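Example record used in the benchmark description.
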Amino acid sequence: MTHRLLTAARELGPAMSARSAEIEALGTLPMDLVDEIRPTGAFRMYVPADLGGPEVTAVESLEVCEEFAYHDGSVGWCVAIAATTSLLASWLPDPHAGDLFGDPGSIGGGFVMPRGRAVPTDGGLRVSGRWEFGSGTKHCTAIGGGCIVVGADSQPEPRADGLAAPFVFMDPDDITFIETWDVAGLAGTGSVDFEATDVFVPEGRWVQIGAGRPVRDNAWSRFSFYGLLACGVASAAVGIARRSINELVELSGAKKPQGSTRTLAERATTQAGVAEAEARLAAAWGLMLGAVDGTWQSALAGQPSTVDQKRRIRLAATHAAQTSADVAETIFRVAGAAAVYRTSPIQRCFRDTAVAAQHAMVAPRTLETAGRLRLGLPTDTTTL
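Model output (structure tokens):
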């Protein structure tokens, strides 16, 4: 049975696709479009049931990201990033979990790497910093930033209770957005830099990702945050690549290359290119969903993700993202001169997947960690 969220993505998708040029030109998702997605629950897919989450499985959540991205890459990307951020609801203490993620209209985002400085103060932390790649932050209701706890000399100095590297949640009014997102692809994600200056963050309004125990013990809190982030990114890339294949199929039946009496569809190179692209993408997608579902079943049974499960997920996510970029490039080349125009969805798919594959969670260098673990070498698994 198809989850209602996937049905909603399919229903909303065509209208979003029709606005892709507008989304790209604006540089962020239009607020009326955000407000159409918000009631579906897609932005908060990993919020637990007791906080009103939509109760999807891990595989279903990735199918939703992939479907939104099929219609518009920037939309799918923003859905994936917000959904992954909502996983942290299970790690936040009350009342912050409910305040930040209990509202059906809530949307979280931010940048997890510690680019900020947090100074302990009465009742919480005072935070300053500048973070990059704030995808969708302009429409978020809570914006997170990774920080290092520092002392009076601004040098790293954990609090007496061990708090050292919190991902703190701030209000949009506390944030200054810096228009840095002038990019080749995924231009509509609004992944701008954002800055905070001496912002007060109340006690406990943060998560130390990968440290401590979750407040809510559930399948989501037993899953790897970084693994889901990587899979969300990869799912968006897969959706975009799938769109490129379908766009070529539609184009090929009508277009005749210059000087040719045959349509693109009648050319052997097109036939082989489409077949290979479809096979590669389906194989990569299947590998990732299989790795995720196996880990999800373990999480449902009460077992936290093992290092090997995390390794398999990250390997599959990187493979899916890189394969998506390769597929979209192949389709772009096979399509010929028709694909070079800005009006062609094929060129947008090519650009969007190329940028998606550069994300730190799925970049080629992440294969080194998977390889080291497979070879039995000592490996830092902090961000696995």
